[in-house]
Amino acid sequence: MFREIGDMKRQKGQGIVEYALLLAFILAIAIALQGSGLDSAIAGTFNRVAQSLGFETSEDQWKTMNANDLLNDTASAEARLKHDKDFLADIGTHFLGLTASELQSKYNINSNKIPNGGVLVGHLTEERDADGNLISTNHDTNGGSNKTKDFYAWATGSSEYDNTRRYLYSDYALKHAQDDYNGNGKTTGNGIKIMGFTFDDNNQVNSVHLIVNPLSLVNNPDPTTPHLEVTVTKNGYQ
Question: Which pTM value belongs to this model?
């Protein structure tokens, strides 16, 4: 019996080592393919494997981290911005290949009449206490339309909306949202907007330009904080 217990312990230890080697291998591939469009998917796999092993990833911390502490974490600023751009790109990918008539019928978007301020896809409203701690994150859509309510699921791969976490982590999203004070708490909103489409010869969308809070670029220009926008194509985003 003791021999069987020993064998079980060795097998468990071997399994952990194998998972650790797998994580290292995934990370090496992600680094090698950085910028190819596959790195985000591999990084997501890395995070899922790490979470399954009980490791807390950086994203796990950012989800509920104090907003002020997150802004002060300059070492993670580039990674947080990349996360948010990946988030936008995953939303934009779902519009690729649609025709102008499908944009109109499915999402009530007239691609020929996009206003200067863009077309609102969705809005994330984050409520914090006076010290910057997250209370909740609520989600609303363009005019209450249920046709765009799934944008956060497109971006996260989750079918459940979790109002106990935040979804955008970059300095731009945290600093340039529209603020509204509610008693001792602060509510700050990030609007995700489509600024334009391009179409191929078959009249199908081959690129979509998304941005977070475009008016902040005009009203609150801040050259020290990279703005949050992407142009998504079938080959990735820039």
Answer: 0.72
